[in-house]
Amino acid sequence: MLVERLLNLALIGGEPILWLLLVLSVLCVAVIVERMIMYLRNRIDLSEFSVSLVNLLNEGKVDEAIKMAEEGHSVEAVVVMEGLRNYDKGPAVAKELMDAVALQRRQNLDSWLVFLGTIGSNAPYIGLLGTVLGIIKAFHDLAFNAAEGASAVMAGISEALVATAVGLLVAIPAVVFFNYFKNRQKLIMGNVDQLMGVVLAFIEEVKDKKSFEDDCNKTLKVNGSK
Question: By CB count within 10 A, which of 14, 46, 120, 182 is most buried?
């Protein structure tokens, strides 16, 4: 009984699998387009931005540096802005705040990439499932139509193999763009680490300078009291 039920279930053939792959392909295209737009909006000229940032900080123009970061919409600019807004709280606090923003932005960059990776890994197997179901149906039809012989089986198998081809067609773009977006994410987070180092170095310098000035003022007060 169990075998018969499974056989009846398998006799649906590969057509439902093809419809499933079609839906998955549409979803993949939608995700790829959405992620592509998001990553394009996060583009930044790192060399120009970092040079401008260093020049402004060296000149003590923190407000202008913050304004420059606000005008940018990239992940790097947002993290830098968070650090500069809290530079007076010290390097430890600024680093924690920048790390929190960087983690949040990284999660945004990761959105839907799991879906692409999952489809890229499993679409060929889904297509293979459709092929197997199609072959089962072809042989089952042959049992009730033996007159057509091998031609009927070959026609059924050729139709069943379409599911495997479609599965590969869905999987290949998904894997390609998954790897592309992951590489872009890695590049962006590398840029973030580099700019965080610049901001923290500036904050550390400001802290040391302030400490030096405070020590000088204390010394002057002590000498003046004497």
Answer: 14
Torsion sign, CA atoms 42, 48, 54, 58:
negative
Residue 50 CB coordination number (10 Å): 17
Q: Domain boundaries in the chain?
A: 10-208
- Cα–Cα distance for residue pair 39/33, rounded to 1 Å: 10
User: Cβ-count burial of 123 within 10 angstroms (0-12 exposed, 13-18 middle, 19+ buried)?
Assistant: buried
Q: What is the Cα 111 distance to its own chain's centre?
A: 6
pTM (2 d.p.): 0.81
pLDDT tens digits for range 148-172: 556 666 767 777 888 899 999 999 9
Residue 43 DSSP code: -
How far, in Å, CA of 57 to CA of 85, rounded? 13
Q: Helix 113-143 crosses helix 15-41 at what angle (to 10 degrees)?
A: 170
